[in-house]
Each structure stands twice: as C-alpha cells, then as structure tokens.
Design brief:
Layout lengths: L1 H19 L2 H8 L3 H15 L4 E3 L4 E3 L1 H23 L1 H4 L4 E6 L2 H18 L3 E6 L14 E5 L7 E9 L1 E5 L1 H7 L13 E2 L6 E4 L2 E4 L9 H9 L4 E5 H9 L4 E3 L8 E8 L6 H12 L3
Parallel strand pairs: 3-4, 3-5, 8-11
Antiparallel strand pairs: 1-2, 5-13, 6-13, 7-11, 7-12, 9-10
Length: about 290
Amino acid sequence: MLKEHKKLERLMLFSEVAQTLSFSVAAESLGISRGHLSTQIKQLEKDMGLALLIRSTRNVRLTEQGKRVLAGMEKIRLSMLELERSAEHEGHAIEGLLKITAPSQFTERFLLDICSEFKQLHPAISFSIDCSYTRHDLTRSNFDLAFRATATPPENMVAKPLMSYRHCCVASPVYLAQCGTPLVPQDIQQHQCLRAQDQASWHFDNHQVHADGWLQINDNNMLKRQAIMGLGLIRVPDYLVDKEIAEGKLQLVLADFSQDAKKIYIVHPQLIQHSKRLSAFIHFVRTKFI
C-alpha cells in the first residue's frame, strides 16, 4: 500500500511539472524544493521503466510516454475532484488524531498548552505525543510532524523556524546566598554544577569550562527541580526557566557571557496536500511564536 501511495504522489508531482514544463515553477507552486521534486520524478521514471521527460539546460519537454501519462493523470484529477465534492461536508471538518514527536522540555513549556487551546477550538481533535530523545525519521515513521531543536534541519523535510533560544546558567537565591555568585565562567569550577551526563564542560563565549557536581542526569526538568531546591547550578535552555526566573525561584548567573543562539523548528514531510487538521494545527502553532 505504501509503495502505491508513493507512486501516486510522484505521479501528481509529474503532472505539475508536465503542465508547467518547468521544475522551478512546479516546485514553487507545490511548496517543495526543486531538488526534491527532481529526485521524485527520476524515481517515478525508474519505477515505471519509462522516460517521461526530456531535460535540457534550457527547457523541459514531454516524451510520447509522458504525454500519455499526463492524459491519464487528468482523468484521475477529475475523479479526485468528484470525490472531494461528494465528501465536501466532511472535508471542512478538523478532526482526528495528530501524531507528534517533540523534546520533553519544549512539550512541557509550550506544546501541551498549545494542544489544549487547539482542542478547545476543535473538540474533535486528539493528540499522540512522543517525548523520547529519539530523532524519528519522518519518512519512515507515522508521525505527522516534529519539533526539533537543531542547527541543521533535515533537507528532505519542510522545516520552518519557530523560535530562538539560548542556554543560561541559573541557581536559587538560597544557593547563591550560601555558596556565592560566580562572576566569571571559571568560577563554576568551585560550585556544584548539576548537569546532563554528556556535559562534562559548559560553553561560554569561546571557552569550554569544566563543570562538576554531585548529580548527573539526562532530564532538564529534574535538574530544574534540584536547582529550585538550592542544590546547585544548572545550565538549561532559557525558555525552560523563564517562569521560575520571573517568580524569583531562580536567578540568572553569568548573564554577561554569551552563549550561542539556537532554534527550534517545526518539521513535517513534503506532501502534495496536508490534511486539514495538520494544516490548521501548523498555522495555529506558528501564530503562537510570531
């Protein structure tokens, strides 16, 4: 079934190229990259064992086989239009299940509230959210979309930036009163640095400073709770502790020493047309970060 689905999708992509006779124009109309479009058409020709297009540096022309396939696709388009019209009353509904994969701290800080608000607008919607640290391949898994904190979003996906963030160092007022406030990055070597297991050093400006303490654990939310209890310094994404800083539970330290800005992206496969629930949710999410 999946193979037939991909073949139909590639035929639709071919139809767009065949009508415009331009990969660039077709890619822009479809909202996908020219390279992805070209790769899909080549795979279609390979699967069908036919040359559908004649490519040159200046133009694109249809082969005789390509003309026949295009004519067949026009019949399919008419059948799809008739099907859409017969189900029009259902097509406008925003309902069903959205499957999402996202980092746990982003989910806790933003995503759960966003899903709840979207649910209030569209009661027939439901969500399944995976918060593992596994970076699922959306071309092989059945997730509708992903939220990724990355400097290199996947090139074979649609990836749109949502927000920028930085890592910051924080501690509770109680801890700082007892142990003193670090004034330069090297001072953290005299403090209890609670950290993830893969963070033997913390980055400030162009320097790596060794960070050591009594606790290593790969869960930023647990680290935050330990910091609030006054048990050490932590270095986490600023959006994870902004509320606690505003409430006075945590204080920024070493704020004058810059740390690289990073971005969180919303990522989804390149499809000819999304479901209404997915399109509506993506639009809703992006309005929250404008």
